[in-house]
Specification:
Elements: E1 2-7, H1 14-31, E2 35-45, E3 48-57, E4 62-69, H2 72-97, E5 106-115, H3 120-123, E6 132-143, H4 145-155, E7 159-164, E8 170-175, E9 181-184
Parallel strand pairs: 1-2, 6-7
Antiparallel strand pairs: 2-3, 3-4, 5-6, 7-8, 8-9
Helix pairs in contact: 1-2, 2-4
Length: 190
């Protein structure tokens, strides 16, 4: 597994890097057979250290965890515990699905646009077209609905756009206010 360990305005020494590699490697190897790479970023917020870890798996799924504490090692340990919990749940769900993905997840390129927030002055303008602040590219995975829900929960995001592998249409899963997961499939709207 490839590691990228860095600090934002913080010096990450050799001791911390070796600690991260051994502990995170042990955690990931316990649950996943083929992790590809891990990115760990340390930063400081006032008196607390923050640790953000992202692990990319060969199946295309991404696990993300964060931790914060007054000491840098404690922040990493908290982050590692959250990662352990996410990967344990993910492995349990894969076993419950009774399905093994033999091929890696395919990704399609898609445009990602950041629109300017509307303020009172721009609302009075003649044009209803939004102002584009940034234009980037993102990847849309081709996965099943169950895998989309797992990916959304692993990445701790409020929603996930994906291409449904059953019919190839674009779908969305999202976290509802009541705690349940919603699924939007435009193909089934009749």
């Amino acid at each position: 597994m490839r590691y990228q360990i860095s600090g934002k305005q913080l010096d990450v020494g050799e001791a911390l890097q070796s600690h991260v590699k051994s502990e995170l490697g042990e955690t990931v190897d316990k649950y996943m057979q083929r992790p590809t790479d891990a990115t760990v970023v340390f930063s400081r917020n006032a008196h607390e250290f923050l640790c953000e870890a992202t692990v990319h798996l060969s199946t295309g799924l991404t696990a993300t965890a964060t931790g914060h504490a007054t000491e840098v090692y404690a922040a990493f340990d908290q982050c590692r515990e959250k990662m352990d919990k996410q990967l344990r749940r993910h492995k349990r769900r894969l076993k419950d699905h009774h399905r093994e993905r033999s091929q890696p997840v395919e990704f399609d390129a898609a445009g990602l646009y950041v629109l300017a927030a509307e303020d009172d002055e721009s609302a009075e303008g003649d044009s209803l077209a939004p102002v584009i602040v940034a234009e980037m590219e993102t990847k849309v995975p081709t996965i099943s609905v169950g895998e989309a829900v797992m990916q959304m929960e692993l990445s701790d995001k409020p929603l996930l756009v994906f291409r449904n592998e059953k019919h190839g249409g674009v779908n969305v899963v999202y976290r509802r206010e009541d705690g349940h997961v919603g699924w939007i499939d435009p193909r089934n709207s009749k």
